Amino acid sequence: MTVTVDKLNAMIAGTELESHDVKTILLMTAREPSQAPIFNHASMAHNNHFFFQGIAPNGTPMPDELRRELEASFSSIESLRLEFIVTASAMFGPGFVWLVKAGPGDYRLLPTYLAGSPYPGAHWRMQSTDMNTVGSDGSARTYLRNQGLGARRRVGDLPPGGIELEPLLCLNTWEHAWLLDWGMGVDGKGGKAAYVDAWWKLIDWEKVHQRSGVLRPEFMSETSP
Predict the structure, then answer these.
(1) Sheet with 166-172, edge to edge strand ranges
(2) For residue 112, what is the domain's CATH number?
(3) HEC string of 23-82?
(4) What residues does the Manganese/iron superoxide dismutase C-terminal domain cover (predicted)?
(5) For the chain, how many structural domains are there in total?
(6) Structural domain of residue 157, as residue ranges?
(7) What is the per-residue pLDDT across 91-100, written as a single tens digit (0 to 9) for each?
(8) Residue 222 lies in a domain
(9) Mean pLDDT of all residues belonging to the chain
(10) Does a structural domain hold residue 49?
(11) pLDDT over 70 at 90, yes or no
C-alpha cells in the first residue's frame, strides 16, 4: 500500500489534485480516460485503507442496533456471512466486496473489480454526443478532450439510475491478500472461502456501526424519535 501511495503522490505532485484527499482525487479523475493511472492508484489506496480500517486484532462485538438493521436486510447475520463468502468466491478476478448502506435500513453487498470504486460518482462519464456521428476530422478527439475536462465540474453527480450509498465495510479479494496463506483450496479446505471466514472473525463492527449512522440510545435525547 505504501508503494501505491508513493506513486500516487509522485503523479499528482505540482497539480491541483495535490491538495485533495484520495476519495476526492478518485472522483475527480474517474471520468477522464487520460487520468486512469491516477484514478487507479487513488482508488486502490482508498480501498485498501478502507479494508484495513474495518478489521481489529480480535474483532469487536456487533452492536445490537446494527445487528437489527443487518438482520432486516439479510434475514440473519449468518446469511450475511455466507453471502460475503459466496460473493467473494464467485468473483472472476481480483477486487473488493463492500457492505454498503443505500438508505435507512437498506444494506447491500457490492462487488467491485480491480481498482473499481464503490462510489456512484465514479461510475460513468456523461456523453451526450452520439460517437457514431462524429467524423474523422479530429472532432472526436476534441470532443473527448473537452468531455474529460468537463468531468471535473461534475464530481459527485450520479449516473443515470444511480443511487446514493455509503460504504461501511470492505473485503479485499486480490490474490496477494489470501493466496500465499490460504492457497487455492482443496476438498473444501483453504482457499478464498477460508480466508473470508477468517476475515469475518476480525471485523471491527464498532467501526461499521459508526459509519452506518445508526443511533444508539445513549446518544439520543428524550425528544428523539
Answers:
(1) 106-113, 95-103, 166-172
(2) 3.55.40.20
(3) HHHHHHHCCCHHHHHHHHHHHHHHHHHHHHHCECCCCECCCHHHHHHHHHHHCCHHHHHH
(4) 166-211
(5) 1
(6) 2-117+144-214
(7) 999 999 999 9
(8) no
(9) 83
(10) yes
(11) yes
